[in-house]
Amino acid sequence: AQKTVLITGCSSGIGLAIAAKLAKDEQKRFKVYATMRNLEKKNSLVEAAEECMGKTMEIKQLDVCSEESIHNCVSSIPDRHIDILVSNAGMGLIGPVECQTIQEMKNVMDTNFFGLVRLLKEILPDMKKRKSGHIVIISSVMGIQGILFNDVYAASKFAVEGFCESLAIQALKFKLQLSLIEPGPVITEFERKVYEDGMKMDLSAADKETADMFTNIYLKNYKSIFQSLGQTAEDVAEHTKRIILSENPPFRHQTNTLYTPMTTLKYADPNGDLPIDTFYKMVFQHDKIFNASLNFIKLLRWRSKKSFDFGKPQS
Ligand code: NAD
Predict the structure, then answer these.
(1) What is the DSSP string of 212-229?
(2) Which of 223, 268, 240 lies closest to 182 in space, CA to CA?
(3) Structural domains of the chain in order of their starting residue, each with its CATH number
(4) Nearest CA residue ID for atom 12, ligand 1
(5) 218 is catalytic
(6) Do the beta carbons of residue 68 and residue 42 sit within 8 Å?
(7) What pLDDT digit, counting tens, does each position of 131-146 carry?
(8) Which tens digit of pLDDT belongs to each residue from 260-306?
(9) Among 38, 91, 191, which is best to mutate for testing ligand 1, by the most ligand atoms less than 8 A from CB?
(10) Strand bridging mode 84-87 / 134-138
């Protein structure tokens, strides 16, 4: 039977790509409820999956920051039956914390973390009753490891990961599956919005050294990091589809093989110093370490390619 999939944040980027990919599945295995906060932004998705509209795809309004909007959307689905939830809506925030307001930080937590919590409060009880369901969360490598000037964003993704790690144990009892998708840099609206906000940021609350570090090191390298390491949203969507179709989906899945050497450092040193020292050297002793790391990354590339080998997809 066709599986129903509810996806959040489908007006752009990864959410749009996942919605289009699942709706266009040749075997028509999915009925996709592609949701977005603002229905006026539906055109790109409609263009990407025109032939699926009203067939394997419906577009619905859902704001992850509103319990009412989530409730109304879920209640409009026949029998409230959702087989697969893809929690994707999210936002970024970069810069020195002393230049960000608490309200800006709360918005990030409210979208990235409480957005997921609200969805689950609405959807989990039905899944538990049916003893079936798959919850797929678009987390980030920053849910594993913090990065310079991404303090609050990383915190929001760590919150997601901690929450899911706890919930996964309970989910197992109800035969529910939970998968965290952890992309590295992905070239989407996200990257552009975050960069533009960074460029506009009022840095007057920061000391000169911090402001310089943000502008002349972080922002200066931002685009080249996305260009050299960045994946496409379609690529992340392909990974997500494979996770959804696999018989034994893993709890965690990193989509970017170029990034795995960095996250591996975290697990290699229980003291936690290795990734921090490495990032420090990459940022502040750039040329020396950066080239060495790139070679290391290339060397490990073939190995990490093998890591995407976790069980057969369902037929
Ligand atoms: P994006 O900006 O293109 O997409 C984010 C979507 O979430 C947008 O459509 C936006 O409208 C939506 N959204 C924001 N607040 C919402 C709300 N309150 N209710 C409903 N929708 C809301 O960026 P993206 O890269 O496609 O991001 C999707 C997810 O991927 C996010 O969770 C992000 O944290 C994660 N991610 C992105 C990257 C990256 O580099 N782009 C890397 C790792 C993880």
Answers:
(1) HIIIIIIIHHHHHHHHHH
(2) 240
(3) 3-259 (3.40.50.720)
(4) 9
(5) no
(6) no
(7) 999 999 999 999 999 9
(8) 888 888 888 889 999 899 888 887 776 555 556 655 655 555 455 54
(9) 91
(10) parallel
